[in-house]
Each structure stands twice: as structure tokens, then as C-alpha cells.
Design a protein that fits this description.
It is a single chain. With about 210 residues, the chain is of the alpha/beta class. It has one domain: Rossmann fold (3-Layer(aba) Sandwich). The protein contains six helices and 15 strands. Strands 1, 4, 5, 6, 7, 8, 10 and 12 form an eight-stranded mixed β-sheet that branches. Strands 9-11-13 form a three-stranded parallel β-sheet. The two termini are about 35 Å apart. It binds 1-O-pyrophosphono-5-O-phosphono-alpha-D-ribofuranose and uracil. The site of uracil has 10 residues, from α6.
């Protein structure tokens, strides 16, 4: 299922990310902040377990997350979203999947894979700001499933209908969260209006 997060603070941060005049500092900070804000929606339905807690006054029943969280950024640009989740769930494990899009074919090329072992029982949050053709996200989800992941949530900032369609077709069991569903792709596979090349803007490369 696709969820577009329309909260005003999320939309405000998205506009800062889209702005071509935002420098690396503003881009980095806004990417972390928007991910944290989106996390409120993403974690809304996570199961809780009851636990006893001693307040300074007396014992009472509290609640805590009953499942572990694994965060998996797609390198490189997904790295810029990790802190947005780990500042809320500091004991989340972090796996890494390295993929880049071949410039001509737009097909994903995998160059790195390092995942924690507890994927099966965890809620896996896959991070990548851009969902363009959907090739990278779909490949990463396949890799996660091969490694035992059950529940996977894909969190992007901006997506194109083409990418959403591909992930929904290849992995109908995966929930997708985005701040905006944009118009489409240009001839070279960039999202319009999008926010440009997320990896380059995050790391100062061209
Ligand atoms: C970008 C982006 C996604 C991918 C999206 O990464 O971060 O991973 O493209 O495109 P797709 O949906 O068509 O697969 P890129 O390949 O530019 O690598 P980088 O993050 O290392 O710059
Ligand atoms: N990757 C990006 O970084 N931006 C796009 O618009 C498409 C793919």
C-alpha cells in the first residue's frame, strides 16, 4: 500500500529539499528532519508489549515496542535518512545495500551487501530518498527477502508513478511511504519535478 505523508511539517521540509538553492548543510539537515517526521506515520501501527515500570511514585503498566527494528539505507543517498530513524530508535540495527543505476540502461548494479542477522523477526525499514524507475528499490527488497526479511517498509521522500508501479507489482506485500508522488520521469530517468540527484546533493559530488 502507498501512503503519502501530507503532514504540514513534512511538506515544509520537502520544499526545502526541492529548492535548488539549498546548500549541502541545509539539504543534509532537512533530509534527517523529514525522515524523523515521517517516522511518526511509519511506526503508527507497530505492536506494543505491556511492561511493568517503577515510577518514582509507584509501579504501573507501560508499553514498549515489541519487535526490533532494522534500518537499511540504499547507498549512497539512503545514508542521509538513517539518523532520522536512529535518533528515535537508537538500538535499531543498520544494514547496508550498495546499488547504483547504470547511466545508460538505468538498471541497478549491486556492489555491496551487509545485513544484520535478525531480519526475520524485525520490522525492516528500507531507506532511499528517490523512487524513480523503481529498479533499485525492487532489487534491494528482493535482496532483503533472500536474507530472510518478512515485514519490509520502503520509505522514500519523492517517487514517480513508474517506480511505485514497479515496486507494487514486484512486491505487493511491501508498504511504501513517501512525502510526494511526483509527475513522472524525464528522458534520463530523473524525477520531475523531483529534487535532482539526491546522492550528489548530499555528498557534494557531481
Ligand atoms: C539514486 C537513488 C536511488 C536510485 C533511484 O541512486 O538514490 O537509489 O537512483 O533510481 P531508480 O528508482 O530508477 O532505480 P544512484 O543510482 O544515483 O546512486 P547514488 O545514490 O550512489 O548516487
Ligand atoms: N536518482 C536521483 O537521485 N534523482 C532522481 O530524480 C532519480 C534518481
Amino acid at each position: 500500500m502507498l501512503t503519502i505523508i501530507t503532514h504540514p511539517l513534512v511538506q515544509h521540509k520537502l520544499t526545502r529539499l526541492r529548492n535548488r538553492d539549498a546548500g549541502m548543510k541545509e539539504f543534509r539537515e532537512s533530509l534527517v528532519e523529514i525522515t524523523t517526521l515521517m517516522a511518526y506515520e511509519i511506526f503508527r501501527e507497530l505492536p506494543l508489549a505491556e511492561v511493568m515500570v517503577e515510577t518514582p511514585m509507584e509501579a504501573c503498566t507501560g508499553r514498549k515496542l515489541s519487535r526490533s527494528t532494522v534500518v537499511v539505507p540504499i547507498l549512497r543517498a539512503g545514508l542521509g535518512m538513517v539518523e532520522g530513524i536512529t535518533r528515535l530508535i537508537p538500538d535499531a540495527s543498520v544494514g547496508h545495500i550498495g546499488l547504483y543505476r547504470d547511466h545508460d540502461s538505468l538498471e541497478p548494479v549491486q556492489y555491496y551487501n551487509r545485513l544484520p542477522e535478525n531480519l526475520q523477526e524485525a520490522v525492516v525499514i528500507l531507506l532511499d530518498p528517490m523512487l524513480a524507475t523503481g529498479g533499485s528499490a525492487s532489487r534491494a527488497i528482493t535482496r532483503l527477502k533472500e536474507s530472510g526479511a518478512g515485514e519490509i517498509k520502503l520509505v522514500c521522500i519523492v517517487g514517480a508513478p513508474e517506480g511505485v508501479g514497479k515496486v507494487e507489482k514486484d512486491h505487493p506485500d511491501v508498504d511504501i511511504y513517501m512525502a510526494a508522488l511526483d509527475r513522472g520521469l524525464n528522458d534520463t530517468g530523473y524525477i520531475l519535478p523531483g529534487l535532482g540527484d539526491a546522492g550528489d546533493r548530499l555528498f557534494g559530488t557531481t
